[in-house]
Design the sequence.
């Protein structure tokens, strides 16, 4: 495939990758959350561990994202957010997200998700108040962006499991480390 | 076919789950980690089996239920059927998958770790992973009213055999 062909659409990538029954994924995630709630007891700690698991996944998943999407690394934060929403969510989870609520200097925005396979068949009991059930997703984004030199803070501002009308992740760019080139360009 | 996600999602999630339980939550307590991973699988298998059998008459005997696991259940979860089924007709069933998906995609690189120790490590990591599908099978059968114990045999990689012992 030629590099000049530009980024591929999320739909095209999702259609071409190996896919599995989402139930297996959704139920596995649910069972993990439940086990963590039993083992760790504190909801805060569960939030933290889900985020950490997501981070570990994100730092590995970014390679697959870059390879399959044909996206070049040299994009600003605005393009990056768009890529996550339109290509990233689509190629892995099969859903599209939208980007809104940009701040004036373009370093903070919201990724809004109206359809989220992680929460199919999920209802939280009252004992789980304070749980950010989908916290693995924020971790994935944080981890993936860190691998392309963007240090971010990702927080949930809306959560359908808490009665909101959508899932909204606020992504704030804290620091952008300039790309380092460990190898000299060819002369 | 209902909703789908990319296979990387489930691969990444299972890999990270096994890693977290073995190296973070229960580091140096591998039997506890194994039990947790199996329990997560059990829950998943129980729920999946519930969903897949909703509109189906009850199975008349153990063999019928095992055949359902080999065909329909395995196809839903792994997109292929079990390749070989053996039984001693006394409650033990051996289900062989000639190319078990979750092992064929595992990133164990034996070339990097040579010698007996490296091999042991790789085998240990694999067996940790296998507690998850073992739990899934046990959960699925338990939902069908069949209590059993499930273990995995990987002496013929990339084939994997699941040994089901039904409790009398």
Sequence:
């Amino acid at each position: 495939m030629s590099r000049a062909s530009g980024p591929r659409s999320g739909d095209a990538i999702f259609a071409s990758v190996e896919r599995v029954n989402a139930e297996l994924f959704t139920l596995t995630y649910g069972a993990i959350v439940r086990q963590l709630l039993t083992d760790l007891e504190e909801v805060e700690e569960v939030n933290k561990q889900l985020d950490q698991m997501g981070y570990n996944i994100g730092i590995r998943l970014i390679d697959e994202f870059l390879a399959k999407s044909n996206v070049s690394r040299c994009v600003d934060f605005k393009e990056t957010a768009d890529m996550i929403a339109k290509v990233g969510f689509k190629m892995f989870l099969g859903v599209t997200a939208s980007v809104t609520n940009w701040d004036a200097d373009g370093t903070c925005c919201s990724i809004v998700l109206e359809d989220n396979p992680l929460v199919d068949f999920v209802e939280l009991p009252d004992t789980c108040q304070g749980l950010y059930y989908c916290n693995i997703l924020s971790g994935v984004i944080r981890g993936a962006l860190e691998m392309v030199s963007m240090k971010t803070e990702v927080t949930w501002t809306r959560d359908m499991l808490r009665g909101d009308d959508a899932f909204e992740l606020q992504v704030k760019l804290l620091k952008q480390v300039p790309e380092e080139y460990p190898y000299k360009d060819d002369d | 076919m209902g909703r789908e996600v990319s296979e990387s999602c489930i691969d990444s999630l299972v890999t990270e789950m096994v890693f977290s339980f073995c190296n973070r939550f229960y580091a140096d307590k591998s039997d506890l980690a194994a039990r947790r991973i199996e329990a997560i699988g059990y829950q998943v298998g129980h729920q999946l089996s519930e969903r897949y059998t909703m509109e189906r008459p009850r199975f008349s005997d153990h063999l019928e239920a095992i055949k359902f696991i080999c065909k329909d259940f395995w196809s839903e979860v792994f997109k292929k059927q079990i390749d070989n089924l053996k039984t001693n007709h006394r409650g033990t069933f051996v289900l062989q998958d000639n190319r078990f998906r979750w092992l064929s995609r595992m990133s164990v690189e034996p070339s990097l770790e040579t010698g007996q120790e490296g091999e042991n490590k790789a085998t240990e990591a694999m067996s940790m992973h296998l507690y998850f599908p073992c739990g899934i099978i046990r959960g699925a059968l338990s939902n069908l009213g069949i209590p059993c114990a499930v273990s995995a045999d990987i002496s013929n990689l990339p084939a994997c055999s699941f040994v089901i012992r039904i409790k009398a």
